[in-house]
Amino acid sequence: MDESESVRAIWSGLGLPGMVDVHTHFMPKNVMDKVWQYFDSQGPLIGREWPINYRADEAQRVATLRAFGVRRFSSLVYPHKPGMAAWLNQWAVSFARQTPDCLATSTFYPEPEAAGYVADAIAAGTEVFKAHVQVGNYDPNDPLLDEVWALIEDAAVPVVIHCGSGPVPGDFTGPQRIERLLRRHPRLVLIVAHMGMPEYSEFLDLAEEFDQVWLDTTMAFTPFVESTMPFPPADTQRLHAMGERILFGSDFPNIPYGYVDAIRTLTVLPGVDDTWLRNVLHDNAARLFELS
After folding, report:
1. Which residue in 171, 230, 225, 166 sits closest to 192, CA to CA?
2. Residue from 86, 139, 124, 140 nearest 108 by CA
3. What's the rounded Cα separation, in Å, for the pair 55 and 61?
4. What is the pTM of this model?
5. Alpha helices by DSSP H, the chain
6. Which part of the chain is the Amidohydrolase-related domain (predicted)?
7. Residue ranges of the alpha helices (H) in 164-199?
8. What angle, rounded to 10 degrees, do the helices at 175-184 and 200-209 form?
């Protein structure tokens, strides 16, 4: 059985029509090449050897996700400096038009122009935003983002936000700044990437307090991550209880193991059942993004 058949066997065995992966990356080729070069060089935000398991051209990567039975995925783009976000958004709009199973994705950066291009993105039908506090190296409470967060909050567009301090801490990572952001914008729909690793417990606290906070499973629970940032066993029951606000994410194509391994890891978590798996692999995202 090849990998696509193995993936399909898992979700079809649960009676699902497929999967939704909220955390995948498609970018302009020159940007993706630079991202891969950074991983290859074990850059300071990586901190360890990290082979790219699905290094292929764009068309092949889309075909791979479709072969796995992924009904919807994202093109999470993110800037690391001013002047990038609007251009990345233009590329992402074009990619979504050419790839109808991709959620229309946009991003932003703390800069004077941000509110304008975020308003344009919302008007154009953006379905999900990406914020990367670690790579962007910015405080999510930067005053340049005040209007941005207000626009996104009012539009109720989910934001996949990398804000945990993994794989290595950043100047502005961690739950405290996100708690402050949520106190200011309590209706924000935030999807905390990577389950907030390694501050899993603190981000579960926020999800329990704010019912618009979701968590994605990206790389969490896998042996690759558990070796350095293990999920606390004491929080396993909380994980189960939060089952209606956890979404499957993979980080495809930038993962150092097989896609099927990320899914199998979830199926053997203590205390999870088929209902939890159906929710995480498909139904929660279908509800959040109002998929038919």
Report:
1. 166
2. 86
3. 8
4. 0.98
5. 3-13, 29-40, 58-68, 85-98, 114-123, 133-136, 146-155, 175-184, 200-209, 223-226, 236-241, 259-267, 274-278, 284-288
6. 20-291
7. 175-184
8. 10
- State percent of the chain over pLDDT 70: 100
Tens digit of pLDDT for each residue in 228-272? 999 999 999 999 999 999 999 999 999 999 999 999 999 999 989
Closest CA to 253 of 29, 10, 9, 2: 29
Q: Which portions of the chain are predicted below pLDDT 50?
A: none
In one letter, which amino acid is 191?
I
Cα separation of 93 and 166, whole Å?
A: 29
Between strands 105-107 and 19-20, the pairing is: unpaired
Residue 116 tokens read as 């304008």
In 3D space, the residue among 198, 232, 201, 261 whose CA is nearest the CA of residue 47 turns out to be: 198
CA–CA separation, 86 vs 240, rounded Å?
39
Encoding tokens for residue 274? 């088929």
